[in-house]
Design goal:
Elements lengths: L1 H9 L5 H10 L14 H9 L6 E4 L4 E5 L8 H12 L15
Antiparallel strand pairs: 1-2
Helix pairs in contact: 1-2, 1-4
Amino acid sequence: MRDALEGYAIGRFASQAEVQRFLDRDRYFPKDRKDGTLRPMTVTRLLKKVFYAGYVEAPGWNVSLRKGQHDALISFQTFERIQENLEGKRRAAARENFTEDF
């Protein structure tokens, strides 16, 4: 999970579909479809969860963003980069191996 989140934050995965394919290939990551794959909306939800950065939030219960009592998988800065990528504020870095051969 950490690899997927950090990969999307730094541009290793340029799209949510690439994150989905990465997680689909991981035999230990739980899948939510009968065919053994993930739904695209599941990937979107995973990328938006502040929980993985060590924080909790529940606006419906009037719980504002605050530091959780659990260990974080990623830093809060990484979470913020993910959110910027989702909102289209940041573009993925150009891949070094991007040539006509690829």
